[in-house]
């Protein structure tokens, strides 16, 4: 068992606070928190994708998630959980200062 306190990044610091990384049975799990400032876009241009499956829980704020054509896919608001497949394109506009908790899983 590994215990960690949930600590969010300070708004003045870099937005990601990786709290735990652990490998077990060929799966790498990373857990952390994020702070996103109102008015920002993630990523700044285009779309991003990463090699792991992601589960994120929004604990404060709102993000407008975008489809590849720029249309709105939906809104991540306080109390929302989202699952993003590995290599799935993603981008969003941060409509309110937002805090979220994430868990990433990847086969190694």
Automatic annotation (TrEMBL):
Recorded superkingdom: Bacteria
InterPro entries in alphabetical order: RmlC-like_jellyroll (IPR014710), RmlC_Cupin_sf (IPR011051)
Gene3D superfamilies for this protein: Jelly Rolls (2.60.120.10)
UniProt-recorded name of the protein: Cupin
